[in-house]
Write a structure and sequence with these properties.
mainly alpha; 1% strand; two-stranded antiparallel sheet; globular; 18 helices
Length: 464
């Protein structure tokens, strides 16, 4: 048992490899909004509508409420432990090394697959433009399971974003803020055009597949909760902010503003867009589309606005890639610095950016994006995120008991309601995921524990 419950101590002593502190709260809010608003609303709203019908609006509310509880817990923990690593670091400090490994391993799953999913979603918007402008072959814009050979646009955009991150943290954050504005303007235009076409009959029946997850005659699990478990993907992203703790100038203040501020803004945006979408067109007409919002605009007679939305998605969706690739590289970096992954990966450039681990991460997710379909990736990414959210809510509650008087720049309101609600909500969403996703997630963590006992734990103990 030696080492399994060993806890990490976070000190102000600088590490040999130190990340540059260049970010302020506007950068963090933009990072959060850039991460949250993306593939989930631009592409997965179609998947969610196919699973829940018009009641996908309720799915958005449920998923958003659970994420809001987790966001409050993240804000409290991020200001108490302003160190890079997010849920992995909080678990290491509060619970112990073995649990931290499981959460870190789950975060690797989350961030890697999110980047892949968003890259595939970006390709769904970019490919039609490439095909109409340059005659780009369809076989090179789809994964093998979708009838193509390889998704080259998805691989390309990952390479571009990785190059931007390698240029430096502040530079990439500034570019991200500009692109976030483009994305928000595009969604505002969609709401302004689609909302006047609202037809209440499109909401009938409101809940055609019921509330709880149920297996339909076609073998697909549908219902409000089945949709919520998938489009939960649309709401997270604020956790990427907590990975920037060591690169934030005033983490005690700015992390809470970034996490809570970006989450509140995005919940409002999502509900508006969802109401406008399902009210403007029967859900069956856009549920299977790779570009549902653009399709809705074309169907209601606004093809030029559809082109604008598609172009905006092509330009602005990379903000999600940037935020999550940023977060994933910092998770890898921190685990390597702790000795649980090869320490040679924990190096930074002269500009304070972890270039080596960024390139390794980009290579991994590019392979996934080029070969896997969107739906399966998103569901499995959700499982990793739910595990991390449960851990952070648990860490907040443990610290409220263990150190009730410890300094907290941000205190989650009604912690003993918010924390358990976040835990129970995440567990319910996990049970609402497809059975195959649950099994894949358990298999991923079984492999992770094997790696921990064979490789990571002996090196961590030797280092300690």
């Amino acid at each position: 048992m030696a080492g399994l419950l060993r806890k990490k101590i976070v000190t102000e002593r600088p590490h040999a490899e130190q990340l540059a502190r260049t970010l302020s709260w506007p950068h963090l809010v933009a990072l959060g909004v850039g991460a949250i608003v993306g593939t989930g609303i631009l592409t997965l709203i179609g998947v969610g509508a196919g699973l829940a019908g018009p009641s996908v609006i309720l799915s958005f509310v449920i998923a958003g409420s659970i994420c809001a509880c987790a966001a409050l817990a993240y804000a409290e923990m991020a200001t108490m432990i302003p160190a890079s690593g997010s849920a992995y670091t909080y678990s290491y400090v509060v619970i112990g090394e073995a649990v931290a490994w499981i959460i870190g391993w789950s975060l690797i799953l989350e961030y890697s697959l999110v980047v892949s999913t968003v890259a595939v979603g970006w390709s769904g918007y970019a490919a039609p433009l490439l095909q109409s402008a340059f005659g780009f072959p369809d076989a090179l814009a789809k994964s093998p399971e979708l009838g193509g050979v390889v998704n080259l646009p998805a691989i390309f955009i990952i390479a571009v974003v990785a190059a931007v991150l390698c240029a430096g943290t502040k530079e990439s954050a500034t570019l991200n803020a500009v692109l976030v504005v483009v994305k928000i303007v595009a969604l505002a235009v969609f709401v302004a055009v689609a909302l006047p076409a609202f037809d209440a009959t499109n909401l009938e029946p409101f809940m055609p597949y019921g509330f709880s997850k149920a297996l339909g005659p076609d073998g697909v699990e549908r219902g409000v909760m089945a949709a919520a478990a998938i489009i939960f993907f649309a709401f997270y992203g604020f956790d990427a902010i907590s990975t920037a703790a060591e690169e934030t100038r005033n983490p005690g203040r700015d992390l809470a503003i970034g996490i809570v501020g970006s989450m509140v803004a995005c919940v409002a945006i999502y509900i508006l867009v969802a109401v406008a979408a399902v009210g403007a067109l029967p859900f069956t007409r856009f549920a299977a589309s790779a570009e549902p919002l653009a399709l809705i605009l074309r169907e209601i007679g606004s093809p030029r606005v559809a082109v604008f939305l598609g172009a905006s998605a092509v330009i602005a969706l990379p903000t999600v890639l940037l935020a999550f690739l940023f977060g994933q590289s910092r998770i890898f970096f921190t685990m390597a610095r702790d000795g649980l992954l090869p320490q040679s990966l924990a190096t930074v450039s002269s500009r304070g950016a972890p270039v080596r681990i960024t390139l390794v991460t980009a290579a991994i997710v590019a392979v996934l994006a080029g070969l896997l379909p969107l739906g399966e990736i998103a569901a499995l990414a959700n499982a990793g995120t739910l595990a991390a959210f449960v851990a952070v809510c648990a860490c907040m509650l443990i610290m409220r008991r263990r150190a009730p008087d410890a300094p907290r720049t941000f205190r989650a309101p009604a912690a003993w309601i918010v924390g358990p609600a976040g835990i129970l909500g995440c567990l319910y969403l996990f049970l609402s995921l497809p059975r195959s996703t649950q099994l894949y997630f358990l298999a991923w963590n079984a492999a992770g524990l094997l790696l921990y006992f064979v490789y990571a734990r002996p090196r961590a103990i030797a280092r300690g």
